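Internal ticket #5521
Category: modeling
Description: The requester needs a full-assembly model to guide mutagenesis choices. All entity lines are attached below as received. Residue total reported by intake: 687.
Assigned to: D.W.
Attached entities:
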Amino acid sequence: MDILFTGLLLGGTYALIAMGLNLQYGMARIMNLANGEFLVAGGFGAFWFFTAGQVSPLLTIFIVAPVAFAINWLIYVVFLRPLVKRAKSRGQLEVDAILTTFGLAFFLVGLTLAFFGGDYFSYSYLARPVTFIGETYALNRVVAFFAAVVICGGLWLWLTRTRAGMSIRAIAVAPDSARLVGIDVPRLSALAFALGGAVTAVGGALISTFLTLDASTGVLFTLKALIIVIMGGVGDVRGTVIAALMLGILETFVATLIDPGLTLAAAYLLFVAILLFRPQGLFGRRQA
Amino acid sequence: MKRRTLFAAATAVATLALTVPAFAQETLKIGAVGPKTGPLAGGAAVSFWPNVQLWAHDVNEAGGITVGGTSYMVEIIEYDDQTNPGETIKAVQRLATQDEADFILAPYSTGLNIAAAPIFQRYGYPMVTHTAISDQIEDLSNKFPNMYFLLGGATGLAGGVVDVLTDMREAGEIGNRVAMVNVADAFGIELASVGKPQLEEAGFEIVYETSYPLGTQDLSPVINGAKDSNPDAFVAWSYPPDTFGLTEQAQIAGLAPKAFYTAVATAFPAYAGRFGAAAEGVLGAGGVYADGDQFKEYAARHEAVTGAKPDFWASAPTYATFEILHQAIEGAGSTDKEAVAEYIANNSFETVIGPVDWDENNSNAKYWTVGQWQGGVFKGVASTGRDGAVAAMPKSGWE
């Protein structure tokens, strides 16, 4: 039981890390390698507000989200839309986007270093135990887990129940045909990308309450997010959530019952196994 | 990522404005290579880079390094090695051949120093390392005669912990049961492998032992495992992000042994900043003579110039290695690398950490091994011969 709950909490963290990238890669078709930097930026925002004004990270997310949304919107419109327009195929767009966002990642790391230095963003928030069925868990992780539930649930409802969400899913499946049925592809792609950035930054703010970040940790999160998104199936919220939870539970299971040193090996084994048997990911569609 | 510090530029402008310099003024180009990005950037941002800045400031403020009637202002040329040994080597090579640096400060961390040592050797630069901890010091100093070590070795560092635990056991404060964990990275693996036999020899029983990968995002299985073994002492050979993670998780899980030790970053000001009063009594790697005037004066200057507090372990020794270079250049009366290397080898130095001299392996034999947070200050509690150690006290819970 203990393993299951600890694993679920870790899975919630992973879902927060991966959900934004899923929106950006799956829906807006931009493989954003600077995703982790936005996560760190969100964490930094929370750190800064907390240390400067004792503002709870749970309130900071309401500042972080719109700011990240606006910045990501701008990035999409200024840097990425020309690539989308120019690209003759999805493959070419992917290569161009990877190169551009790779550069963007370096730029963002350099910017953070120049303005805030390379020190750790470390603070303590809600580091209190909560007891549930005889076991103790960290309150900040529990809070982040419930936030992940709210965010993922909200996204799922929005994507399935609203017109904008439906249109975005249409773009994910067939961007060229979507235009034929009157969907404003450029605008909605920008929306999906910006939303992905906002979700990532909010995830970062929540995660910073229990993980210690610094300016150059972003790439670790990008990698983890990428693995989860690919395992779950690109462009599917359910897939990301389930892959994140599977990974969380597996890692905790291995760490508790076998050896914490083997968690990485177990995670990659799961990744390889999924790719072997379902190359398109758990919920992914086979490419036509 | 090249940045020449403003000090040199500012002094150059000042010199031009005055037009009549008191005496001939020249510049020494000093190379500095270290992580500004990558996994070790966080540590380097605390212990290494601010000291580079502080040293350049101090030297230039005092009128430069004086060699035979000429004062040399220092100009720092910085490179980011991205925590990548290949980049460290390239940067040192570039400093030696293209920038024609007069001297190069030793890089940051054990691995990057070992990677760069052959290049320092090839171009004849003296290499006084500040953050290299290894049990290979004898081999290294044989292979690279210009390489010096200030921060000590793994055996000494682990030995300090065993001594502190033994003292606490003899005082009846803790029992025999030790839970020991380590990060699966060069530092953690080496410390665990030299620490375990020392603990066993001292009669401790290792009731829980495990390692975890660098960058583990949830350390609760490690802490829960340690807690289930009901230890009297918890020892973690940890690196910065996990030092914070293990401490927080121990608080949450209620793992509160009388002796709680985490390694790197326990001595960082950010540790006390994050855990506040709960940090009281936590043992960690390093330590300084925190009540000594030398350290207090250094810490005040560090904060005034760089805007950040120094840590209570590697910061002062890092600054000391720069002081040694400074004193050696002046002592040798020459900016010739060979003459300076020669001077370093044959002299002892008065630095911010006290007197430094070298043993037969070019290593500073007197270094701090264990410190403890006491009243908001991380005080040295064990060393291999430094003055000013205070007694370790048992930790009483996390409140």
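Resolution: model delivered.
Comment from assignee: Chain B has two domains: 3-152+291-356, 154-288+368-383.
Ticket closed.
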